Amino acid sequence: QVRLVESGGGLVQAGGSLRLSCAASGHTSSISAMAWFRQAPGKGREFVAGISRSAILTHYTDSVKGRFTISRDNAKNTVYLEMNSLKPEDTAVYYCAARGRISHSDNVWVDAMDFDYWGQGTQVTVSS
Q1: What is the pLDDT of residues 113-122, one digit of tens each?
Q2: Beta-carbon neighbour count of residue 78 at 10 Å?
């Protein structure tokens, strides 16, 4: 089993920045791709950014391209989401996800069903 714990959320004004962290523990050797999703009130869970096991490949949803950066430190079993130029529409609970299926490929995954482990979420609120 793998446990994911997010941190770094909070309240920020529009145009501001936040850095989210997600620390993995447990059977971390099974983790390959990781990603960040978000869920705004009254909406479904949305893919935000994903990163491959090697960190060479990344992918972003169009609405955050150029503003958000995903990265990971495999030595620390941690994935990050640097969020700049935040907008009120970025307000949501942000979830970290990890794919725990053994694979020899180095891919980015974007569908929630492709991930096996989830954190509890961290609230990000952007005021106008």
Answers
A1: 999 999 999 9
A2: 18
